[in-house]
Fold each of these.
Amino acid sequence: MPCGTNHALHPATRPKRGLRALRAEKAGAELFRIDGVVLATPTRSSIQIGRAMHVDPLTGAWHLIEHSCSPNLLIDFDRWVWRAARDIAAGERLSVNYLTTEAEMVVPFDCRCADSGCFGRIAGFAHLDAKAQWRLRGHVAPHLRRVADNSSGGCIFGGRSASCSRSTPMI
Ligand SMILES: [Zn+2]
């Protein structure tokens, strides 16, 4: 699917929330771009891209994408696109882990995704302990990697160093 189109997507009508894939997508496929207006403060539908930078889609449909602790989408921060995290079936509801972009959720909530690795309270990446932050290492936004390493002396994403505690997750 060419990037920048929404042909693969349509708002779910039943239930009314969410967004579903119109057709099957292969793992790694680029579904659509992240674009919108950059704001200094978050909204309920924005994606955080920096310490005080949030992209709001305004007219795009991706604000309908729901949270999951085991999502079928991820954000490719090198190309600024939404990408299939695994094979996606036609009609499947699209989801992303909000904890991979948001330091502080505008509206925290309790996740009930039933995944064995559910993060529970979704309040933002800054509220996770080091172990939970480490679990997200493959998909977390660059600005959150900096937050984690600033608070841990580089022990979470910065790699092993002599000053890192044994209890801190390491590469
Ligand atoms: Zn969950």
Amino acid sequence: MPQDCTFLLPQAHSTQRLGEALGEMLPAGSVLLLEGNLGSGKTTLTQGIGAGLGIADAIVSPTFTLISEYLDGRMPLYHLDLYRLDPAAVEQLYLETYWEGWEKEPGIMAIEWPDRLVHRPDRYLHLTLQFQDLAPQPTADDSVPGRSAILRTVGDWTLDWVKIQQMLAGSSVKLGGAAGEED
Ligand SMILES: Nc1ncnc2c1ncn2[C@@H]1O[C@H](COP(=O)(O)OP(=O)(O)OP(=O)(O)O)[C@@H](O)[C@H]1O
Ligand SMILES: [Mg+2]
């Protein structure tokens, strides 16, 4: 079974759609580390997860609140943006209380700027967003490149890659290849 999969996301809506599929299929207790430069689409993807969970509240960037909790969906969504924090400050947040399920109801935890983390859960999903000119020909607006996303499982984790690909079939999200394939 492949441990990672690349998706091509030509428009912002594609990023949202990938998030939506994850929100629909991920089990409670999932931790998603969202890597990618400024403006690469981490919050957009999280908004999609919220939609997939049936969360009606608007999901906005938690840059100043650090942790936003959305509790009106199928399960909680915990959205974190660690950009402004250094690892010592992140340690003080005791984020393991979320992923160990000690104090918080298990849900989906989406963490922007996870390079600030001192500790990581034993198993998690890692998603890397990159800017990419996906158009075969120069487009009318070259200033808006699409993105690619590499989704990878880390630790003892099995993701149903076939299911996620089926969920995205017919959408603007295209498959960019999976590790483990012969070619
Ligand atoms: N696949 C895509 N193609 C084109 N534009 C996209 C794509 N995905 C997201 N965007 C756009 O990129 C912009 C930045 O998105 P977003 O705020 O989600 O990025 P971010 O990674 O959370 O940024 P930050 O690092 O500041 O938190 C938004 O205008 C969004 O609509
Ligand atoms: Mg963001």
